[in-house]
Automatic annotation (TrEMBL):
It comes from the Eukaryota. Residues 123-140 have a biased composition (Basic and acidic residues). Residues 90-141 are annotated as: Disordered. It comes from Cercophora samala. InterPro entries: Kinase-like_dom_sf. This is Protein kinase domain-containing protein. Residues 97-117 have a biased composition (Acidic residues).
Length: 469
């Protein structure tokens, strides 16, 4: 591995990392109000403001004092991973000023600490670390560094192949004053704990995907090449090195983030960068169905699926990425709070019965008004407010007519999924909801047609009726 001094970005193009196989810890901590368990003795080690990282060197020392969660070693040869490009990473901080700032802070009298803290907070807000290639309205850098590079893995024959690596280096995780609670430590994880949580969650998600055996899920996600770890030299800190974790993934050629298509389509409407409406709806359908497959077969709820989490292939199909903060239902510690149908359903149901009884339709899970227990509140096709429809996170991809009239999204969902045999049929409970009146005559007519087509067969019992997302 090429050596870099502390204070200099360690993942420059051309750097060679010596990576080795690693066993990730089990997902832990709290994710979306669900408890995974806690393997760490201390969740937040900031202990108030005085231990909070004030600059690059402070954060590096903090990370050195709090190494990643230790797990049993894994045998296997070392692999050389050569970095070609930083795809998503932190905007470089003013490293030239770091030493000066640290000296100034060390010379401060205790009486001046409060004023210095206030000034430093202002500087940190101005230094929000983001991918410098992205505009302010796109996906912010949130912690994991994404690298493009090449490696020759064990069992492969040359030449080296291209991969995407997600690096969970706590030294580059953004820090926030929200993580400071009191002198006993904050309720939110510190930068080291967050890096461990992200790494553990991402690895667990991809292993669930790999073990699912579902072709639709495998096509709709990146191929996973395992969990890895490597050393980063720390000469200036007199520590020798620190350990960093990594996930290795398929490098998908020809796929573009949905967020980029939307952004560039808005910027240059004459170049037909954005696909036509029919193609966008076909892509939207595939995105919904991959997300549904992940939920049903892997018990993975992405929870915050946004356009920057979706890659669009040339044929319009999608690949869903970024699972570090997904909810993994099979790891929830107290299973009585697990609302996944596979956990709550009677054990004697076969797969067909389970689907028809418990697998809610995308119509309900993505209904614009989002009142159903099975709704995905964080990812509705169109956001709505009373008397004021509001574009949601898919603004720019969904038809423009939906933004001013959410009933358009409701009609599309009904026409697309109302008789799909993979899902539970719509029932009287759905058709009787008062919020349908908000959709106008076109939606009412569609509802009546769908109601007649469904025939309203008996499809839930007392036990099944209580099963929901």
């Amino acid at each position: 591995m090429s050596v870099s001094e502390d204070g200099i970005y360690e993942y420059k193009d051309g750097t060679v990392l010596e990576i080795r196989p690693h066993t990730a810890p089990r997902p832990f901590g709290v994710m979306h109000a669900c408890w995974y368990g806690e393997p760490k003795n201390e969740y937040n080690s900031y202990h108030g403001f005085h231990n909070f990282p004030r600059n690059r060197h402070h954060q590096l020392r903090f990370v050195l004092d709090k190494p990643p969660v230790a797990t049993p070693p894994v045998g296997g040869p070392k692999v050389k991973f050569t970095i070609k490009k930083t795809v998503v990473g932190p905007k470089p901080m003013d490293f030239d000023r770091s030493d000066e700032e640290e000296e100034e802070e060390d010379e401060q009298d205790e009486s001046d600490v409060e004023d210095e803290n206030s000034n430093w907070k202002t500087r940190m807000i101005e230094r929000q670390r983001r991918d410098p290639r992205l505009p302010p309205d796109d996906h912010p850098y949130s912690g994991a560094i994404v690298l493009a590079g090449e490696a020759l893995l064990p069992g492969q024959e040359g030449p080296a192949r291209d991969y995407i690596a997600k690096v969970y280096d706590a030294a580059y995780y953004p820090t926030s004053f929200q993580e400071i609670d009191d002198d006993d430590g904050g309720d939110l994880p510190d930068c080291c704990t967050r890096a461990d949580m992200d790494y553990a969650g991402e690895v667990a998600a991809y292993e669930l995907i790999r073990n699912s055996g579902q072709p639709g899920i495998e096509k709709g996600t990146l191929r996973y090449y395992g969990a890895w770890t490597f050393k980063v030299p720390c000469k200036a800190a007199d520590r020798g090195y620190r350990w960093v974790r990594m996930v290795l993934l398929e490098k998908l050629n020809g796929a573009v983030p949905m967020s980029r298509l939307v952004r560039e389509g808005k910027q240059d409407q004459d170049q037909d960068i954005l696909p036509g409406e029919t193609d966008r709806l076909r892509t939207l359908r595939h995105m919904i169905e991959v997300n549904e497959e992940l939920w049903w077969f892997c018990q993975i709820d992405h929870c915050e699926l946004k356009p920057h989490d979706v890659l669009v292939r040339r044929d319009g199909s999608v690949v869903i990425i970024n699972f570090q903060t997904a909810l993994l239902c099979s790891f929830i510690k107290k299973q009585e709070f697990n609302l996944h149908p596979r956990v709550r359903a009677p054990a004697d149901l076969d797969e067909h019965q389970l689907r028809r009884l418990c697998r809610f339709s995308p119509v309900q899970r993505h209904w614009p008004w989002g009142i159903y227990p099975s709704s995905v509140d964080s990812w509705q096709l169109v956001r709505t407010r009373e008397q004021e429809p509001e574009a949601g996170i898919l603004d720019g991809w969904v038809p423009k007519s939906w933004l001013g009239e959410p009933a358009g999204a409701a009609v599309w969902l009904l026409e697309t999924y109302h008789l799909d045999p993979r899902y539970r049929l719509l029932d009287d409970r759905f058709f009787g909801e008062e919020n349908h009146q908000k959709g106008g005559e076109k939606l009412q007519a569609c509802l009546e047609a769908v109601k007649a087509a469904c025939g309203l067969p008996l499809q839930y019992s007392k036990s099944g009726n209580d099963m929901r997302h």
